[in-house]
Amino acid sequence: MLLLLALPAAPAVAGNEAFRLDPVHTRVAFRVDHAGLSRAVGTFAGATGVLEFDPEDWRAARLEVRLPLSSLDLGDADWTRKVLAPAFLDAGDHPEAHFVSTAVEPIGPDQARVTGQLSLRGRSHPVVLDVRLNALKRHPLTFRRTAGFSATARLDRRSFGIDTWPNVIGHEVELLIEAEAIHDRGAAAPAAPETDDADPQ
Hints:
This protein has one helix at residues 77-84; strands spanning 17-21, 27-34, 38-44, 48-53, 62-68, 96-108, 111-120, 123-138, 145-156, 169-183. It is mainly beta.
């Protein structure tokens, strides 16, 4: 899914530092019920994006992320191909997932609840991330100022038109995210969230 942005990027917020996601050290894992027997686990890699972040004021933070669905790994090539097919993610027509934050609520000195619009498979719906800042420091190898985060979220796959095999695969999907973002003075501001005219919320 490559949805084009219809709105211009917003200006940077005073006090925010600009970071770019490190695709090598950013992973999105998911778990979903498999016939009541176990929880199937998959991962995505190669995320790119921009973060504006002030550790003294989480409310001003803004985030935009794009995730290539072709990076899916379910541990089995045949099963991975099935999930990328039109009945599930339809990655041929919609090769990316896209997230843009809309609000950030601090819930502790190193934690926040980030609400945003997730665009997946041609539909956009709100998703809430529970985020923890693990560290904000100079990386010991690259010497670049780096922020490290862990995050979790839950979504209903049916909201994005993925309703195949309802008696085998659970509706609720749990997301587990580990991310690092590198300070970048030249990073562009995150874009405004997309709207889904065909599926209004």
